[in-house]
Amino acid sequence: MDRSCTADYRVGACLASSVDGRIWHPELPVLGSAEDRHVLESLRAQADVLLYGAGTARADSRRRIEFRCPDIAESVPGIPPIAVLGHRIDFDFSAPFWNSACPIAVVQVGATQTGRPPALPARIDHLVVPADPSAPESADLAATLRAVAAWAGPHRAEPWSAEPVRVLCEGGGQLIGGLMRREVLDELFLTVTP
Asked: Checking CA distances to 64, which of 57, 92, 104, 174 falls within 20 to 30 Å?
């Protein structure tokens, strides 16, 4: 694997799975446990930016992203910036997810229009990344990660740091799979829950 493309960022992904290998269940609002939640929030506390696929952002839209574990909430100044990767800007921006208390950007794949989409609220940043030439329905993930790292860098607690920007991908499965296939995922944090 050529690591030269990831010198300015490191990518981790957090995934919860049930014992039978599911990452989603139609009868459960959240697949996980209190211990799994603590692992997720511990990883968030170490991240410089959270990366979501559009489907995961839509599925999680009913909740603000925040620290709910008291020990973490007391020791961390706030949620890292959130970047949401997608083709279309057709989100419900009034949903709680989009009103989380942190900077948020929509990372649009292969946009043909120039300028900021009119549907995008002023409080949300807009980044455009190229599509993957070999798979036009997918983002060029190396270009996406560079753009997300450049956007998130100034929002870090220490924006002048020479350390790589720590990207935590929280899903979904397609995005995590794409990161793995393109060999840009440095760490996978998997918790198995009943």
From this structure: 174
HSE-up of 35 (CA within 13 Å, CB side)? Answer: 6
Choose among 103, 183, 170, 102: nearest CA to 141.
Answer: 183
**Closest to 32 in 3D by CA, of 171, 167, 168:** 171
- C-alpha to C-alpha distances, 171 to 14, 18, 51, 177, nearest whole angstrom: 7, 15, 7, 9
Query: How many beta carbons lie within 10 A of that of residue 105, not counting itself?
Result: 21
User: What is the per-residue pLDDT across 89-123, written as a single tens digit (0 to 9) for each?
Assistant: 899 999 999 999 999 999 998 877 778 888 899 99
Q: Which residue has the higher pLDDT, 60 or 74?
A: 74
* Count of all residues that appear for the chain in the document: 194
Nearest Cα neighbor of 84 from 124, 118, 53, 63 is 53
pTM, two decimal places: 0.88
